[in-house]
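Would you mind writing out a protein's amino acid sequence and the numbers that encode its backbone to help me picture the idea?
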Amino acid sequence: MTEQRAGTEFNIRAGEYTAVITARAGALRELRHRGRDLIVPFPAGGPIPDYRGIVAAPWPNRIADGRYTFDGAEFEVPVNEPDRGCALHGLVFPLDWDLESQNESSVTLSCTAGPTPGYPHTVRIVVEYRLSGEGLSSQVTAVNVGGTAAPYGVCPHPYLVAGPSPLDEWTLEIPAGEFLEVTPDRLLPKEARSVEGHEFDFRAPRAIGATEIDHAFTDIAFDGGGQARVLVRDPGGTGVGMSWDRTCQWLQIHTADKQPPAPNRLGLAVEPMTCPPDAFNSGVDLIRLEPGATHEASWSIFAR
């Protein structure tokens, strides 16, 4: 798995929240409430393991074999997940993002995806991280500054931490009625299935237990304000939540299962996605970003 080096950092704070964002990958390295970690952090200046906290664009999740067809032309992007033969998490996570603005409670960074032989488009991507007394809000804005229509998708990649107890003991609530069945070897999509009667049914909060998840969910229930929420609670009383808007109709959940000696189940990856895995091939919910067009997606993380 690819690891990026984290360099320049930006510290922001508001109320009882603090956060650290890195220029490398535009990544959220640390988020704390009253000194308690709400995400799995990574060390300053070191590698970014498991893509923690990155912005995944211009595609989230996987492209099978790194190959896809768009507007009748075939393209190939680098495979960076060799075990599964996939192109994972886009093009911008290895980049050092530029600082656009910063104050005590917010920071805005930018970078450009493409043009490359496999993605011959030019998409400017801007991420704003803003803290308030309510938590951390993030917004990613993509603008096609090139001359050709571009396929596009995006997601964040935090690993949430409910508290000090093991992940198996955390209570999880996912407002989704379907999950995407995937191939066991490559985690590529097969078909959407109802969570009814399945171990992935977390519509009512319950303990994660030994359940292993690395799947996309959909048929998401949004409230009257157009928000959906995943909530994770520790039996000791602490917790963390993540909310997002209707621009993300898909949600990847991963229980961070690892084989020894790697640290196992350190946190819960919660990734609101604008499209499902391998959308560059299926076309499902894939955004077609015309020249001059803009796309925005936003999400928030907060303490419980």
In short: The helical segments are 279-282. The radius of gyration is 18 Å. Residues 97 and 111 are 5 Å apart (CA to CA).
